[in-house]
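Chapter summary example: a protein plus zinc ion.
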Amino acid sequence: MTFSDDELDRYARHIVLPQLGGVGQQRLKAARVAVVGAGGIGSAAIPALAGAGVGQLTIVDGDTVDLSNLQRQPLFRTADIGRSKAELGAAFVEQRNPHVVVRAIAEQIDPANAEELLAGHDLILDGTDNFATRLLVSDCAVKLGIPLLSAAAQQFQGQVALFRAKPCYRCFVGDAFDADDCDSCAELGVLGALTGTVGNFAALIAIRAIVGIEPDAAGTLHLFDAARLAWRPMRLTADPACRSCG
Ligand SMILES: [Zn+2]
Protein backbone atom coordinates (compact mmCIF):
# COMPACT_ATOMS: atom_id res chain seq x y z
CA MET A 1 0.00 0.00 0.00
CA THR A 2 1.56 3.29 -1.06
CA PHE A 3 0.59 6.89 -0.41
CA SER A 4 0.01 9.61 -2.98
CA ASP A 5 1.68 13.02 -2.60
CA ASP A 6 -1.63 14.37 -1.30
CA GLU A 7 -1.76 11.69 1.39
CA LEU A 8 1.87 12.21 2.39
CA ASP A 9 1.17 15.92 2.94
CA ARG A 10 -2.21 15.30 4.55
CA TYR A 11 -0.83 12.83 7.09
CA ALA A 12 2.59 14.49 7.59
CA ARG A 13 1.96 15.24 11.29
CA HIS A 14 1.11 11.59 11.87
CA ILE A 15 3.90 10.06 9.84
CA VAL A 16 6.51 12.07 11.73
CA LEU A 17 5.36 10.60 15.06
CA PRO A 18 7.71 7.79 16.16
CA GLN A 19 4.75 5.90 17.70
CA LEU A 20 2.81 6.01 14.44
CA GLY A 21 5.01 6.59 11.36
CA GLY A 22 4.36 5.32 7.85
CA VAL A 23 3.51 1.85 9.13
CA GLY A 24 0.84 3.19 11.50
CA GLN A 25 -0.60 5.36 8.75
CA GLN A 26 -0.81 2.29 6.48
CA ARG A 27 -2.70 0.45 9.21
CA LEU A 28 -5.15 3.35 9.44
CA LYS A 29 -5.63 3.28 5.67
CA ALA A 30 -6.26 -0.47 5.75
CA ALA A 31 -8.77 -0.22 8.62
CA ARG A 32 -12.53 -0.66 8.23
CA VAL A 33 -14.44 1.04 11.04
CA ALA A 34 -18.21 1.01 11.63
CA VAL A 35 -19.59 3.96 13.60
CA VAL A 36 -23.01 3.17 15.01
CA GLY A 37 -24.78 6.40 15.88
CA ALA A 38 -24.05 9.75 14.22
CA GLY A 39 -25.27 11.78 17.19
CA GLY A 40 -23.20 13.73 19.72
CA ILE A 41 -20.46 11.13 20.01
CA GLY A 42 -20.44 10.30 16.30
CA SER A 43 -20.27 14.02 15.50
CA ALA A 44 -16.86 14.16 17.18
CA ALA A 45 -15.59 10.68 16.32
CA ILE A 46 -16.45 10.66 12.60
CA PRO A 47 -14.47 13.80 11.63
CA ALA A 48 -11.53 12.62 13.78
CA LEU A 49 -11.42 9.17 12.15
CA ALA A 50 -11.85 10.60 8.65
CA GLY A 51 -9.15 13.18 9.22
CA ALA A 52 -6.80 10.53 10.60
CA GLY A 53 -7.10 8.56 7.36
CA VAL A 54 -9.14 5.51 8.37
CA GLY A 55 -9.56 3.83 4.98
CA GLN A 56 -13.18 2.72 5.21
CA LEU A 57 -15.92 4.18 7.37
CA THR A 58 -19.48 2.90 7.67
CA ILE A 59 -21.95 5.25 9.37
CA VAL A 60 -25.10 3.58 10.71
CA ASP A 61 -27.92 5.85 11.89
CA GLY A 62 -31.60 5.74 11.06
CA ASP A 63 -32.36 9.14 12.56
CA THR A 64 -32.87 12.49 10.94
CA VAL A 65 -31.56 15.76 12.36
CA ASP A 66 -33.81 17.38 14.95
CA LEU A 67 -33.55 20.96 16.18
CA SER A 68 -32.73 19.72 19.71
CA ASN A 69 -29.68 17.79 18.35
CA LEU A 70 -27.81 20.92 17.26
CA GLN A 71 -26.76 21.84 20.81
CA ARG A 72 -24.24 18.94 20.78
CA GLN A 73 -23.92 17.55 17.22
CA PRO A 74 -21.56 19.76 15.20
CA LEU A 75 -21.77 17.50 12.13
CA PHE A 76 -25.09 19.19 11.39
CA ARG A 77 -26.31 22.68 10.59
CA THR A 78 -29.68 24.30 11.15
CA ALA A 79 -30.45 23.85 7.45
CA ASP A 80 -30.00 20.06 7.87
CA ILE A 81 -33.05 19.59 10.10
CA GLY A 82 -35.10 16.67 8.80
CA ARG A 83 -32.26 15.13 6.77
CA SER A 84 -30.60 11.74 7.32
CA LYS A 85 -27.75 11.84 9.84
CA ALA A 86 -25.95 8.91 8.19
CA GLU A 87 -26.07 10.53 4.77
CA LEU A 88 -25.02 13.96 6.09
CA GLY A 89 -22.17 12.29 8.01
CA ALA A 90 -21.01 10.48 4.88
CA ALA A 91 -21.18 13.68 2.82
CA PHE A 92 -19.10 15.44 5.49
CA VAL A 93 -16.46 12.68 5.39
CA GLU A 94 -16.20 12.89 1.59
CA GLN A 95 -15.57 16.62 1.87
CA ARG A 96 -13.14 16.23 4.74
CA ASN A 97 -11.00 13.46 3.26
CA PRO A 98 -11.58 12.11 -0.26
CA HIS A 99 -9.26 9.16 0.47
CA VAL A 100 -11.81 7.65 2.84
CA VAL A 101 -14.31 5.20 1.36
CA VAL A 102 -17.49 6.01 3.28
CA ARG A 103 -20.81 4.21 3.33
CA ALA A 104 -24.02 5.60 4.85
CA ILE A 105 -26.55 3.17 6.30
CA ALA A 106 -29.65 5.27 7.00
CA GLU A 107 -31.34 2.48 8.96
CA GLN A 108 -31.91 1.81 12.63
CA ILE A 109 -29.73 -1.09 13.74
CA ASP A 110 -31.86 -3.96 15.09
CA PRO A 111 -31.53 -7.68 15.87
CA ALA A 112 -32.51 -8.54 12.28
CA ASN A 113 -29.85 -6.47 10.50
CA ALA A 114 -27.07 -5.94 13.08
CA GLU A 115 -24.83 -8.85 12.14
CA GLU A 116 -24.98 -8.16 8.43
CA LEU A 117 -24.31 -4.42 8.93
CA LEU A 118 -21.35 -4.93 11.25
CA ALA A 119 -19.63 -7.93 9.63
CA GLY A 120 -16.44 -7.22 7.73
CA HIS A 121 -15.23 -4.37 9.96
CA ASP A 122 -12.04 -4.29 12.03
CA LEU A 123 -13.50 -2.08 14.76
CA ILE A 124 -16.96 -0.95 15.83
CA LEU A 125 -17.43 2.41 17.54
CA ASP A 126 -20.77 2.57 19.29
CA GLY A 127 -22.04 6.04 20.16
CA THR A 128 -25.74 5.21 20.42
CA ASP A 129 -27.85 6.59 23.24
CA ASN A 130 -29.65 3.61 24.75
CA PHE A 131 -28.78 0.36 26.51
CA ALA A 132 -30.84 -1.90 24.26
CA THR A 133 -28.88 -0.88 21.16
CA ARG A 134 -25.54 -0.87 22.97
CA LEU A 135 -26.13 -4.42 24.23
CA LEU A 136 -27.22 -5.56 20.76
CA VAL A 137 -24.10 -4.06 19.17
CA SER A 138 -21.93 -5.61 21.90
CA ASP A 139 -23.41 -9.11 21.52
CA CYS A 140 -22.90 -8.83 17.78
CA ALA A 141 -19.29 -7.65 18.18
CA VAL A 142 -18.52 -10.60 20.48
CA LYS A 143 -20.13 -13.04 18.04
CA LEU A 144 -18.26 -11.60 15.06
CA GLY A 145 -14.97 -11.30 16.97
CA ILE A 146 -14.70 -7.55 16.29
CA PRO A 147 -13.29 -5.17 18.95
CA LEU A 148 -15.91 -2.74 20.26
CA LEU A 149 -15.33 0.80 21.39
CA SER A 150 -18.31 1.82 23.45
CA ALA A 151 -18.85 5.50 24.28
CA ALA A 152 -21.67 7.20 26.14
CA ALA A 153 -22.48 10.56 27.72
CA GLN A 154 -25.29 11.68 29.95
CA GLN A 155 -25.75 14.84 32.03
CA PHE A 156 -22.16 15.58 33.25
CA GLN A 157 -20.81 12.01 32.96
CA GLY A 158 -19.02 10.35 30.09
CA GLN A 159 -17.65 6.86 29.67
CA VAL A 160 -15.49 5.16 27.04
CA ALA A 161 -14.20 1.60 26.95
CA LEU A 162 -12.59 -0.71 24.43
CA PHE A 163 -13.78 -4.31 24.61
CA ARG A 164 -11.98 -7.20 22.98
CA ALA A 165 -14.33 -10.17 23.37
CA LYS A 166 -13.82 -10.61 27.12
CA PRO A 167 -14.77 -8.76 29.28
CA CYS A 168 -17.56 -7.47 27.04
CA TYR A 169 -20.00 -4.57 27.46
CA ARG A 170 -22.63 -7.00 28.76
CA CYS A 171 -20.27 -8.14 31.56
CA PHE A 172 -20.14 -4.49 32.57
CA VAL A 173 -23.84 -3.54 32.50
CA GLY A 174 -25.55 -6.92 32.96
CA ASP A 175 -28.79 -8.14 31.41
CA ALA A 176 -31.22 -5.75 33.09
CA PHE A 177 -31.19 -3.14 30.34
CA ASP A 178 -32.08 -5.12 27.20
CA ALA A 179 -35.57 -3.62 27.14
CA ASP A 180 -34.36 -0.12 27.96
CA ASP A 181 -34.67 1.73 24.69
CA CYS A 182 -35.46 5.16 26.10
CA ASP A 183 -33.51 8.12 24.86
CA SER A 184 -31.53 8.93 27.97
CA CYS A 185 -30.35 12.30 26.64
CA ALA A 186 -33.92 13.41 26.10
CA GLU A 187 -34.92 12.35 29.60
CA LEU A 188 -31.95 13.46 31.64
CA GLY A 189 -30.12 15.98 29.49
CA VAL A 190 -26.49 16.16 28.50
CA LEU A 191 -23.94 18.94 28.50
CA GLY A 192 -23.33 19.92 24.86
CA ALA A 193 -19.55 19.87 24.69
CA LEU A 194 -19.34 16.70 26.82
CA THR A 195 -20.44 14.45 23.95
CA GLY A 196 -17.64 15.94 21.85
CA THR A 197 -15.06 15.29 24.57
CA VAL A 198 -16.20 11.68 24.88
CA GLY A 199 -16.48 11.15 21.11
CA ASN A 200 -13.04 12.54 20.48
CA PHE A 201 -11.57 10.42 23.28
CA ALA A 202 -13.21 7.37 21.68
CA ALA A 203 -11.64 8.28 18.32
CA LEU A 204 -8.27 8.61 20.06
CA ILE A 205 -8.59 5.09 21.49
CA ALA A 206 -9.72 3.82 18.07
CA ILE A 207 -6.65 5.28 16.38
CA ARG A 208 -4.36 3.85 19.08
CA ALA A 209 -5.99 0.43 18.73
CA ILE A 210 -5.74 0.40 14.93
CA VAL A 211 -2.11 1.54 14.93
CA GLY A 212 -1.23 -0.79 17.81
CA ILE A 213 0.06 1.81 20.26
CA GLU A 214 0.75 0.30 23.69
CA PRO A 215 -0.61 -0.09 26.27
CA ASP A 216 -3.77 -1.59 24.83
CA ALA A 217 -6.85 0.19 26.22
CA ALA A 218 -8.99 -2.96 26.33
CA GLY A 219 -10.51 -3.88 29.69
CA THR A 220 -10.40 -0.39 31.19
CA LEU A 221 -13.41 1.87 31.48
CA HIS A 222 -12.54 5.56 31.25
CA LEU A 223 -14.95 7.74 33.17
CA PHE A 224 -15.09 11.48 32.68
CA ASP A 225 -16.73 13.75 35.21
CA ALA A 226 -17.47 17.12 33.65
CA ALA A 227 -18.45 18.54 37.05
CA ARG A 228 -15.05 17.75 38.61
CA LEU A 229 -13.20 17.98 35.26
CA ALA A 230 -11.44 14.65 35.82
CA TRP A 231 -10.89 11.39 33.98
CA ARG A 232 -10.80 8.21 36.04
CA PRO A 233 -9.79 4.77 34.73
CA MET A 234 -11.59 1.73 36.14
CA ARG A 235 -10.52 -1.86 35.53
CA LEU A 236 -13.28 -4.11 34.15
CA THR A 237 -13.58 -7.78 34.96
CA ALA A 238 -15.23 -10.51 32.92
CA ASP A 239 -18.42 -12.07 34.26
CA PRO A 240 -17.97 -15.86 33.99
CA ALA A 241 -21.78 -16.18 33.73
CA CYS A 242 -22.07 -13.54 30.96
CA ARG A 243 -24.47 -14.83 28.34
CA SER A 244 -22.55 -13.09 25.59
CA CYS A 245 -18.87 -13.80 26.22
CA GLY A 246 -19.03 -16.28 29.13
ZN1 LIG B 1 -19.36 -10.59 28.67
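Key point: The first helix runs from residue 5 to 10.
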